[in-house]
Amino acid sequence: MIKLLIGAFLFVLSFVSPALGLPEYVEYILIGSSYLILGYETILHAFKNILEGELFDETFLMTIATIGALIIGEYHEAVGVMLFYELGEYLQDLAVDKSTDSIEKLMDIKPEKARIITESGDRLEAKPEEVKIGDLIYVLAGERVALDGKIVEGSTYLDTKAVTGESKPFFAEKGNAVISGSIVLDSPLTIEVTSLYENSTVARIISLTKEARETKAPTEHFITRFARVYTPVVCALALIIAVVPSLITGEWSTWIHKALITLVISCPCALVLSVPVAFFGGIGSSAREGILVKGGTHLETLAKANVFLFDKTGTITEGSFKVTKTISKNKETEDKMLQVLAALERESNHPIAKTILSFCPDTKTVATNVREYKGKGLSGLIDGVRYYAGNHSFVSTKCGGFPPTDSMGTVVYVCSEKEYLGSIELEDALKENVKESFEALRANGGTKIVILSGDNEKSVSRAVNLSSADEGKSSLLPQNKVDFIIEEQKKKNICVFTGDGINDSPALATADVGISMGGVGSDVAIEASDIVIMNDSLSSLVTAQKISRKTVTIAKENIVFAIALKIVFLALGSFGLIGMGWAVFADTGVALVSVLNSLRTLRNR
Predict the structure, then answer these.
(1) Strands 531-533, 513-517: parallel, antiparallel or unpaired by DSSP?
(2) Domain ranges of the chain
(3) What is the C-alpha separation between 314 and 312, in angstroms, rounded?
(4) What is the CATH number of domain 114-143+148-194?
(5) CATH class of the 322-427 domain in this structure
(6) Residue 423 has pLDDT above 90, yes or no
(7) Strands 170-172 and 136-139, how do they pair?
(8) Contact 174/151 with Cβ under 8 angstroms?
(9) pTM listed for this prediction
(10) 500 tagged catalytic
């Protein structure tokens, strides 16, 4: 700003110096000083690029155009072009700064300190990176929680808006999980740390956000490639305009002036700046809603997606099961079945394991050599006998076969190698707004919505009916989900898969866009995904889809607008119908209008 003000003041003073009776050389000194103050960074940047082999960029064009104007005696024009170019760059920088505000605010969620409670009861301040799993930390009202953990003392309302996008505070008490970055609103908490800082929610958000800045969308790559071809072509055109007519007419000054106008008009600032700003604005707008997008390429792909695939448990359902029925031969067999289940499920991290353990009686039965068969069930040794628990197709093959129960919920069957012990039935309610979210996806371009689940056919059919999905596939292993996605991709469909568990990771990685639920999702699923929804709400997926479509539309608007106006002004400039002032508008003005249009991606209504 200071550079612009000084340069502009000297530029204006050069105009009025003759009226002030100052010598002619003073006017030239003022013009030269103004040009150097305004343009030295641009000129140095152009020469640096030339030395590095990057000849054709906007700084090169501005340098050649203004130096050419000085050579043919158009001093005020040369300084005016540089002044308005630098003013445009400054205003564009302001626009870029505004587009990054939402993401920069995310960086502020990192707590600077944690208050560790020692064995003696003292509270010592430490960096979050120094806190270990199992340590107790004390968080005062108004402070951010430094690390993920579990409340062991106290209760309060928590503000998680900066992390999950959820605007409404919720009440948390002893036993509840707390994510880092949350703000304690009214009462202090004692929290047992369950995750190192490097694996915490805050660290993950910051890491994903930095990653998003470095990942370009296909449209951004296209603009970069386009500029590399477009700029030298325009330089060649300007050279032809300067030389060929001059050789014929002998009016070198006139045609060189027209060539310089062509160079100024042709600067690709509007394209190379406004398109990245649009995608960065879309990423920032998503971040405000608790949606972490790992790069512009995923926004662009999501905007074109037409097939939406969903895991069932924990993704479209609450993931909090309730035991509704147990079936066994008699009370004695039922007790044995529950003891076996408790011993096996104690070694599992599946969402239903916690529910089963809370239902089964507290038992000292211990299972050894426990093995988990992904998408199928568990097995383990108890008192030298191997037991199995899982879905019907898995368990029935282990003890001679038995008919499945007639249930619409999830059924876990239990047997040993010698006998069938019985089954336990659980139900998992759909999340709020699932049906409305599916209908919104369908209205915005989704041609097919499918539930892919490892659960039994009746349970999946129930979810399909309640959610208004188009179809459901049951009893699927992780590889089956991958195979289904590949088949859809062979039909030229663009697939989005949304899941939350470790067994969803292959499908998340295979889909054109993988979306994981960050609140309940596993670390592996989050790493494998392209977009992370921090509040676990499917309505946020609809929001992400709308933001992506808006972002791509605005980027395309900028491309069409900039190229169309460039062509018009180049034609007018080639025939001498416009002067350098209009040329400056064709560069700086168009770029500024395009950037301001890109900033619309920051507004999400």
Answers:
(1) parallel
(2) 2-104+213-278+550-602, 114-143+148-194, 322-427
(3) 6
(4) 2.70.150.10
(5) alpha beta
(6) yes
(7) unpaired
(8) yes
(9) 0.65
(10) no
